Amino acid sequence: MKNAAYKADRNQSQLVAVDMQTKLSRVMSSDIDGVIKNCAILLQSAALLEIPTIFTEQYPKGLGLTVPELSPYLAGKKAVEKTAFSCCAEPAFNRQLLGDHTQVILVGMEAHICVLQTALDLLAQGKTVFVLEDAVISRNPENKRNALNRMREAGVIISNIESLVFEWLGVAEGDAFKKISQLVR
């Protein structure tokens, strides 16, 4: 195992929040509040550490805009609107992917559709892909489990928000460490 490839590096990371939308969130499993909370923690941590962030919205006319709980952490950013399931099928998404950032961290919904297809396409582009299991969701928990298994077998690194943000930090010191420690409590 190449240890460095399996550890998140904030200088190589880019965060992608996939389709965290209002109407879609209403039909998710009962874990949706926890997933939204975890996505908020991750977005705040990324902002503190100056990690570039992209967020997408699948057919917003029908599925609504991004959930209001995440809006404060996306201020100044414009959603990549899409109709394709894989974010990578959208040219605007690909233009925002930073070539020098080799790691892409994926969160959002649905794990077995848009997150899965995006993860597989990013792997095909040579990216190291992390999916945070406590920040992705599907309507059916079995579909989420299946998607996580498929992604793991394909080479996606399955992790969680707390592990990832502390990998980003690297050391237990400084203002960012103090603020992020408060967020994950």
UniProtKB/TrEMBL annotation:
State the InterPro entries in the record: Isochorismatase-like_dom (IPR000868), Isochorismatase-like_sf (IPR036380), Isochorismatase_domain (IPR050993)
Query: What is this protein called in UniProt?
Result: Isochorismatase hydrolase
In this protein, which residues make up the domain named Isochorismatase-like?
14-162
PANTHER family the record matches: HYDROLASE, ISOCHORISMATASE DOMAIN-CONTAINING PROTEIN 2
* One Pfam family this sequence matches: Isochorismatase
Q: Name one GO molecular function term.
A: hydrolase activity
Which key words tag this protein in UniProt? Hydrolase
